[in-house]
Amino acid sequence: KVEDFESHLFLTCRMAKMEDNEIVFEMVSFVLGDTYLISFQEEKGDVFDSVRNRIENKIGKIRHSGIDYLLFALVDVLVDHYFIVLEHFRDTMDYYEENVIHETSDNFVDEIQKLRSELLAARRNINPLKEMIFRIQKLENPLLDKLNTKYWRDVYDHMLNISESIENYRETLNSINDTYMINISNRMNKIMQLLAVVS
């Protein structure tokens, strides 16, 4: 969410990280004032190393732009890491699509359910973040330079792409699950036919 106070803006959203091939979501909050930006997070470690590197090595325009541009840069990196999560989903989905026809493991349904839960968790975190970024674009607040609106619009477009990809992956996963269940049913029919012939 984003809350517009007279002297500052308060933003809070979920950061996504990949740790040991698992998706970890963590709450991150920002307080933006006219001369400061404060960030809070729940755990050590984050996704902001690239921003720190740009500041320390004077790369790009962060050091020469306003505080609100720094906020944009941090949110932009946070959004970019959702693309890394999408990559994880895509790789897993590709594996399932390639192997679903020959899959006989009892764990396959459990793996599909786990991925479905991860997709739902990602969607639950992406939608509020998308709304927050949309709202920042529309805010009439002197803390936000109008020249930076185009950058927020670009990040919002990224969020739309991420959201659309999540929905596509959910549909693909349902299709994989249906294919697997049909294969299992066909195998059972063949076994029943064989048993009928033997009997």
- Biggest sheet character: 4 strands, antiparallel
Q: Count of DSSP helices?
A: 4
Strand content: 15-25%
- Indicate the low-confidence ranges by residue numbers: none
Q: What is the gyration radius calculated from CA atoms?
A: 23 Å
Number of strands: 4
Order of helices and strands: EEEEHHHH
- How much helical structure, as a percent, in the residues? 55-70%
Name the average pLDDT: 87
For the termini, the CA-CA separation is 66 Å
Shape: elongated
- Structural class call reads alpha+beta
Spatial order of the strands forming the largest sheet = 1-2-3-4
Describe this structure in words.
- The protein has a four-stranded antiparallel β-sheet with strand order 1-2-3-4.
- Strand 1 (2-4) and strand 2 form a beta hairpin.
- It is 61% helix and 15% strand.
- By secondary structure, the protein is of the alpha+beta class.
How would you briefly describe this protein structure?
This protein is an alpha+beta fold and 199 residues long. It has helices at residues 49-56, 67-99, 108-138, 149-198, and strands at 2-4, 9-19, 22-32, 37-41. It is 61% helix and 15% strand.
